[in-house]
Amino acid sequence: MSITVHLPTMLARLAGDTNALEASGDTVGEALTDVIARFPALGPRLRDDAGKPYGFVTFYLNDEDIRFRGGFEAPIADGDEVIVVPTVAGG
Amino acid sequence: MTATDTTPVDHAQRLSALPELSTEELQRYSRHLLLPEVGLEGQRRLKAGRVLLVGAGGLGSPLGLYLAAAGVGHLGLVDFDVVDVTNLQRQVLHGTRDVGRPKLDSARDRLLDINPHTDIETYDTRLTSDNALEIVREYDVVVDGTDNFPTRYLVNDACVLTGRPNVYGSIFRFEGQASVFATPDAPCYRCLFREPPPPGLVPSCAEGGVLGVLPGLIGTIQATETLKILLGIGTTLAGRLLLVDALRMQFRTLKLQRDPACPACGTRTLRELIDYEDFCGLRAVHAGPGVAEVTPAELVAWRARGDAIDLVDVREPGEWALGHLAGARHIPLGMVSSALDTFARDRTTVLYCKGGTRSAQAARLLQEGGFSNVWSLTGGILRWRTEVDPTLPNY
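^ inputs. structure came back:
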């Protein structure tokens, strides 16, 4: 499966200044592993040491929060989009 | 009367309870009165509306200006800050002549100039677990224009506990987020982000910068949602998260779902406000065990007696470019772990950042890497500026 992972600008600088990365895998977690293999600096920003999601970075599969679709196990299909939404506090 | 405490009354009764508009007000709001969705009744609703703005800064500026101009009758402002010259690039509520004045004074003058019919209540305080519920209960809608995680969780929880909608906006560099949380049917802020990041991981606008117009974009979206809630029209962002990317000028809307495990609006195990500094891990950093601190005066003395010191600035590149301590080298906090081999075990290492939080974190990373002679500069470059070198820029 080939999907697109969309990064916010604050993380894009860790991925060669690219906001949209092509990735492959059968689940959201596998797609992220694929991206992290190419850009290791992204790893600790996307998931914790145990490979689990943080409570302050939310992932969307298309427009749905993956926590309600199986988390990192959520299955993906060709053309899906994964959107990384980190918390920010500025005002 | 609030959005959720309202008891059922018939339409005529509710209408008669709304304040009348003077001839001057009818003229002032004519462009609203022409809108079928607002009209005379809607404008009277706005006049009856009570909105609390938490923060009179970047987001609070357009919020205050547009809500006052639109005829919201009662605006409460919470802020304890003083106008600084670095605010003026985006905080359009305040002007150059206001530098040094309390933001609340400056805001009141400006808002009353825009609309003398607006009632302004000011709270010269930090919103805390002790005062939040009492203040929030006085209002129909709460708008989150704060700039830090503890206050964002506090605002959210106070809104959930009192049943007030939380009109959320948040910004960083070129990107922003907006939503309406904590309405009866909508998830809350905790449903989206169940916990804050560890201190120092996500830079603030004071550390990472922000495009001046971005709070204008996000703040006007928050103002729009606030007016719609007061008017009871349209479809708000309740249950949706709006992402704005100003650099690519892309808007994306995502669905929000209530987290059944959310302690605020899911399980409702959160029955009172908590210690938000503690929740956000801030106390642990300030009182962090095992991190040695050096004051500016001590560091000056060490350098004067010729100690070999590796002085390392762990701030972001933009902050380094603004100005840095003479003789320092630059390793942003995020790069420290991968740069351990550039540190020497036989030298004294002094780390500094803007205020002392990130340097304490970096010191901990070095300690974990086996370095023992590691110090964090107390109060960071801002205290150094005050006590040693006033030519460095304040930011």
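The longest helix of chain A spans residues 28-38. Chain A touches chain B at residues 8-10, 19, 54-56, 58, 60, 63-65, 67-68, 83, 85-91 (CB under 8 Å).
thumbs up if we can close this ticket
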